[in-house]
Amino acid sequence: MNNEFNTLQKFDTGNGREGFFHSLPELEKQGVGKISRLPISIRIVLESVLRNCDGKKVRRKDVETLANWNAKKPANEEIPFVVARIVLQDFTGVPLVVDLAAMRSAVRRVGGDPKIIEPLVSVDLVVDHSVQVDYFGSADALRLNLEMEFMRNRERYQFLKWGQQAFKTFQLIPPGIGIVHQVNLEYLAKGVLSQRSEVGGQKSEIFYPDTLVGTDSHTTMINGLGVVGWGVGGIEAEAGMLGQPVYFLTPEVVGVHLTGKLREGVTATDLVLHITQMLRAQKVVGKFVEFYGEGAASLPVPDRATIGNMSPEYGATIGYFPVDQESVNYLRATGRSDEQCSAFEHYFRTQKMFGMPRKGEIDYSVDLELDLGQVQPGVAGPKRPQDRINLPDLGQTFRSLLQQPIKDGGYGKESVDLSTRHLVQLNGSAPDDGDMPRIDPGEELNKAEMVTNRPTPDPAKDLKGADPFRHGESKIGHGSVLIAAITSCTNTSNPSVMLAAGLLAKKAVERGMRVDPAVKTSLAPGSRVVSDYLTKTGLQTYLDQLGFNLVGYGCTTCIGNSGPLHPKIEKAIHDHDIVAASVLSGNRNFEARVHQNIKANFLMSPPLVVAFALAGRVDLDLTKEPIGKDKDGKETFLRDLWPSLTEVRDAMQSALTPEVFRKLYRNFADQNPKWNEIPASTGDIYQWDEKSDYIHEPPFFEDFSMKPGKIENIVGARALGIFGDSVTTDHISPAGAIKASSPAGQYLISRGIEPVDFNSYGSRRGNDLVMTRGTFANVRIKNLMVPGTEGGVTKYFGKPNVGNPVAETAAATKGEQMSIYDAAMKYQKDNVPLVILAGTEYGTGSSRDWAAKGTRLLGVKAVVASSFERIHRSNLVGMGVLPLQFAEGTNAQTLKLDGSETFSITGLSDTIEPGMTLTLKIERANGKSNLVPVSLRIDTPIEVDYYRHGGILQFVLRQLLAKNR
Ligand code: SF4
């Protein structure tokens, strides 16, 4: 056991047991730094650095630098953070296991022992991202959606079962159990962990704080429990699994002093939307945020977790709540053992990190104040989570956005008559329903240039006649609510808002109110505990009566798996260009994220989701206008239905017990018979199957040798795309529908797969051949090289005449319009390197390693942007793609670039340094050229190594092979 600073000490874990720990108070006593003034989150990272200090991977200097963290000017040093464990969800987890399998194959090819590739820390993968809302509004919806899920994902699940047996430190939680972050909060997180080791020749147990990274941006939710953890790209997680520290630049820590209490009628969702707006304005990107003070102490852990969850939306690396009695109470209430709870409390007390800090006790980089009593009910949208709207202002805001120009974030309608409504007869999806044949979205809808999330289930073929839609007559128009989803671990982990939704539903049902059949209603909790308490309190039955039947335990609408709308609704939206709305208790609302045809998406608390489903529209002020009429024709208002805090508390007390958590979190496989039916292959090496279109060996280790290449200038590159601001990872690598006419769709068709069986990009992340074709293929991405278009198109300009651009042919200067994938392949054939040019916040949105992997496999060598999102930037480096940043005030528009230019990047050599200035040379067809300074966004020395090796995977593989020779 490392003990470089002699800080290893004994402590009483509280059960008559003794353990050892690396004492931070002792480190302070030795004069290494003023540790007791450090933010708690920094101290937790410091403990990891201290414990793992071996003089090699982690140096004494790393400990000293972090122990002397300067609040106002944090050191410009990278921190080597060795995390205790890793969590994965299936969308990002499958490609990670695919890469591990590919590494094993590569090791075998060079004659090594494949078993050297093994996760070195514990890894939990929760299968939660694959379930889609195909069926809703019926008692059968859960079963039918699960059946569809297994039908679509069988190959991936078979592969995961192989991984489960091949890797020792890998636990898999099968589909139908819950959502990764809620499962982490309610079950996986331990607060404090221990490891057997030898101290002074004696067998001992060393205790240390639970820390983690996860391949999902909302991993941050766990910070609500006092566990430091955040989302990383799959590529970094892979390195973490293989024993590499996760490196990050020493952060600033923003202290948010919370005072007061939430008022009656204000929910945790209202609070997190308020905080998101407030912290976005404070520009906390890349910083830690730590909440403290008596206001923080008054919040229960589920509220803290909701706030922690949305850190990516406010831009922070984490939103952390220190450990206090409330944290211990939560662990106890969720069924963790007495021994565990006691060790957690004693450990943090002994480290002098227990209890919510008060103002003035800790030094923060920035001090902010928030009085919880000032928070008001609200929603956020229609396109970004930070655009909060006070509830009374929603109708007016929506109306003005309808007419605002598109370039200003509106919908560009010249004249709007909100009273215009279009009749839709929702009389079944069978082929013989009058004037409207059943549309196969893979064919007719695409022909009509419409897209849908995923294929409509074919009841006859798939599930013996089950009908996916509700029937009736409806009138829809601008502002109609067509999706109302109680979704997302952000909120479903919080019993107070879930019970409030149930109580509101109860009051509505008792008044005889109903939800319009055009509204696709769904309830997808993040664990079965929610169903247990909604059933015990008798509230589920009221939700059912409004159509909020259980549709699955998974991400569903939150990840964009909202499933198709009735074909007639899709057609009406298309024919009348309707700006329809979704209301959801999720955390993201970028365009086309929730559903490709729903343009206005509003985030809100679960009870407000039910309220807006009842209202059927968003263009109103729910605080003044009626939601609808009761059975006697009397107008009913939100205030008539809204439950009081006392009602919510009473319901909570009668519902939540530790035994429920213990019962529901064990023997997962037994609880899902469909999982047991999946046949699993065995062995250390995965037998790649060329017939599979879900799992394919990626080409990252083709021609792998022990020697890395040289870093050299990029010369004679073409632009593959020029994009504006806020290009998301979903624009770069969509997770949703695969359009039949897209390169990925055409490829799948060429493999004999019908559009109805395409499944989503997210589910095909184990297949590089599909994912590369899907890169930059989002139907909403706008490549400014082809003005006026949407979707993955570009102009192909051919091989450049480097140094003599005027000699290019007229045809080459004009460019030929084609798909981004086709152009990239033509350029690859001619060995032409490619660049992407973009505006601010490039790569914002969920962490998505395929956004970087696909970029690399298309042949892109550099992305030059005005600014980058944190994870995507590091993923680009991890895949050997250069992130470069324009100086402030410069971008593709100010440089008047249209993509016909030739680009070179000079200043690159084996001696590059993080942050150095390089030169982007632009040669124009008219013979003119510019030299533009750009900064190298390789931020740390280790990233230089990753880049030199062609990526992190190659770097780690070379290290492991060298070590095991
Ligand atoms: S529910 Fe939403 S936030 Fe939670 S893991 Fe799923 S996609 Fe991420």
Which properties best describe this structure?
binds iron/sulfur cluster; 34 helices; about 15% strand; globular; single chain; 34 strands; alpha/beta; seven-stranded mixed barrel; five-stranded parallel sheet
Protein architecture, described:
It is a single chain. This protein is α/β, with parallel strands linked by helices. It is built from 34 helices and 34 strands. The strands form 11 sheets. The protein has a 7-stranded mixed beta barrel. Helix 32 links the parallel strand 30 (860-865) and strand 31 (882-886). Helix 2 packs antiparallel against helix 3. The chain is globular and about 80 Å long. The protein starts with 7 loop residues before the first strand and ends with a helix. Mean pLDDT is 91; it is low at 429-455. Bound molecules: iron/sulfur cluster. Iron/sulfur cluster is lined by residues 89, 179-181, 216, 218, 488-490, 555, 558-559, 586-587. Residues 89, 179-181, 216, 218, 488-490, 555, 558-559, 586-587 line the site of iron/sulfur cluster.
List the helices and strands and how they pair.
Elements: E1 8-12, E2 18-22, H1 24-29, H2 40-51, H3 60-67, E3 78-81, E4 85-89, H4 90-109, E5 122-126, H5 141-166, E6 170-173, H6 180-188, E7 192-199, E8 202-209, E9 211-214, E10 228-231, H7 234-241, E11 246-249, E12 253-259, H8 268-281, E13 288-292, H9 294-298, H10 301-309, H11 311-314, E14 318-320, H12 325-333, H13 338-350, E15 366-371, E16 378-380, E17 388-390, H14 394-403, E18 422-426, H15 441-447, E19 472-476, E20 481-486, H16 489-492, H17 495-510, E21 520-523, H18 528-536, H19 540-545, H20 567-576, E22 581-584, E23 600-603, H21 606-615, E24 628-629, E25 635-636, H22 638-641, H23 645-653, H24 658-664, H25 673-677, E26 714-722, H26 729-732, H27 743-750, H28 768-774, E27 793-796, H29 810-814, E28 816-819, H30 820-829, E29 834-838, H31 849-857, E30 860-865, H32 870-878, E31 882-886, E32 902-906, E33 917-923, E34 929-936, H33 941-948, H34 952-963
Bound molecules: iron/sulfur cluster.
